Amino acid sequence: MNMFSKIVIPAFIVFVIFYGFIKKVNIYDTFLEGAKEGLMISFNIFPSIIAMVFAINIFLDSNFVNAVLGVFTPILNLINIPLEIMPMALLRPISGTATLAIMNDIFIKYGPDSYVGRLASVLQGCTDTTIYVLALYFSSIGVKKIRYSLGVGLFADLVGISVAFIITMLFF
Amino acid sequence: MVSYIWLFLILIGIGFSALTGNLDTINDSILTNGTKALDLMLSILPIIVLWTGIMKIAEVSGLLRKFAKLMEPILSRLFPSVPKDNPALGFIASNIAANMMGLGSAATPFGLKAMSELQKINDKKDTASVAMITFLVLNTAGVTIVPTTVLALRIATGSNNPSEIILPGVIATFCSSIGGLLLDYFIRRRNNK
Questions:
Q1: Which domain holds residue B29?
Q2: How many domains does chain B have?
Q3: In B, residues 112-141, which contact A (CB 8 Å cutoff)?
Q4: Smaller CB count within 10 Å for chain A: N or C?
Q5: What is the ipTM of this complex?
C-alpha cells in the first residue's frame, strides 16, 4: 500500500505530460499558462486562509473544547467512549491540522493498535474539514450566500463520525 | 454564513479566555497566528501552482474530457444542472479521484478549478449554485480509500498492522458521502416543488 501511494503521483505526472506531448500540445507553454492561473487562485484564497487560521487558533487556544467536554465525562464513561477521542470528533469538521496533532498524541500515548488509536485513525480518514473547505472554495470564487451547504456538510460529518464509532467497535 | 462561523469562533475563543483568566495565551496566539497562516500558504502555494500547470496540459490535450466521459454516467446523475461537455465535470472527476487516493493537497487545485468553472455557469454570482453544493458535499465527506497521512503516522508510531484501518475507514467515509448526498438530494427536490 505504501509502494502504491509512492508511485501514484510520479506516474500520473509522466502520463499527463507524455500524453500532451503525443497530442502535439506545446506542453511547456501550456504548463506556464496553467501555473499562472494557479498563482491567481492562491492570491485569491490567501486572505481567507489568514482569516480562518486566525479564528480557529483563538478558538483552540482558549481551551473551550476541553472545558465543555469535562461536563460530559461521566456520560462518556458510562457508554465506554474514551474521553481523549471527543475533542478530535468535535474538531474534525473545523481543522485538519488540529485533529492530526491530537491523533499523533493518542498514537504516542496509547499506541496506534489500541482501541482509541484505531478509532482515531478511522475518524481522521473518514471525513474532511468541512468548514475549512467551504470557506476556501466559496471565497475563491466570491460566493457569499452559501445556502444549505454548511448544514449538509456537517450532517455528512456527523454520519461519518457516528459510523466510525460503531464500525471500530464491530471490527476490533 | 461564513461570517457567523468566524464570529462564533472568535467570540467564544476570546470570551472564554477572558472568563478563565487566560488572556496571555490569546495575546500570544493573535500575534503568532499570521505566521502560521503564512506557513500554511507557503506549503500549499507551490503545490497549487504546480498542479494547475500540469492539469492545464491534461485539459488542453483532451485527457481531462476523456476521464470525465468515463465517469459521466455517475456525474450526470449527481450534477443534472451542468452541461455534459462542461470542463467542470472533468475537474470534479479529478478532484474525487485525487481524494480517493488520499492526495488531499493534489485534490485542492482541481476543486478550486471546478468551482471557478461552475461559477461561469452560475446565474447569481454571489449565491452558491445547486451544483456547487452537491460538489462540496462530496468533497467535504471526503471519499478516501487510501488515507496517506494516517498510514504514515501509524507506521511512524510502530503499528503492527498499519493498513488494518483501511476497510472500516472506507465503510465510514462511504456512509458519510451517501448520507450527505441523500440529504442534498431531498433538499433539492423540496426546493424544486
A1: 1-45
A2: 2
A3: 112-113, 115-116, 118-119, 124-128, 132-133, 136-137, 139-141
A4: N
A5: 0.79
